[in-house]
Write a structure and sequence with these properties.
Layout (H helix, E strand, L loop, with lengths): L1 H9 L5 H14 L22 E7 L2 H4 L3 H12 L2 E10 L6 E2 L8 E2 L5 H10 L22
Parallel strand pairs: 1-2
Antiparallel strand pairs: 3-4
Helix pairs in contact: 1-2, 4-5
Length: 146
């Protein structure tokens, strides 16, 4: 869904095979997925610390955080692992305070964040060269209260 959106909507290219090509390209470049504890300053525990060009989080910081301050600390912790000029990409669902998974009926906490809250947490987390909020206009079926 993400690649389809990028290719068709952002790049204005309706070619379906380009979506598959983009997926394969990213999979070829992705080196590892690393489990971590975002609430812990060391994040990776005793694992060797490396710096990364890109760190991406998908729908997790707002779930791991109980407050805007904790959300900001999580971002600051992640930034410590970026190479100079690196990118921190955070996919987040704004406006919701809970979500459900795959129709399970179980309700899970989500820190309610609006655009101004997200920008505040980024500024509070320390030096940032630039921040850009993109609204993909995608309606996620998360069962969020909006």
């Amino acid at each position: 869904m993400y690649f389809k959106y990028v290719v068709e909507e952002l790049e204005k290219n309706p070619a379906a095979d380009l979506t598959v090509q983009r997926q394969e390209l990213l999979r070829g470049k992705l080196k590892e997925v690393i489990p971590c504890n975002i609430r812990d300053k060391t994040i990776l525990g005793d694992r060797e610390i490396k710096l990364y060009d890109i760190i991406q989080t998908n729908l997790c910081l707002e779930i791991a955080s109980e407050s805007k301050e904790e959300f900001s600390r999580c971002i600051a912790n992640l930034k410590d692992f970026l190479k100079p000029g690196g990118y921190l990409v955070c996919l987040t669902a704004k406006g919701g305070s809970w979500y459900t998974c795959a129709g399970s009926g179980c309700k899970f906490h989500q820190l309610k964040m609006e655009e101004e809250d997200i920008l505040w947490t980024i500024r509070k987390s320390g030096e940032v060269q630039s921040a850009q909020l993109l609204n993909y206009g995608v309606q996620w079926d998360l069962g969020c209260s909006m």
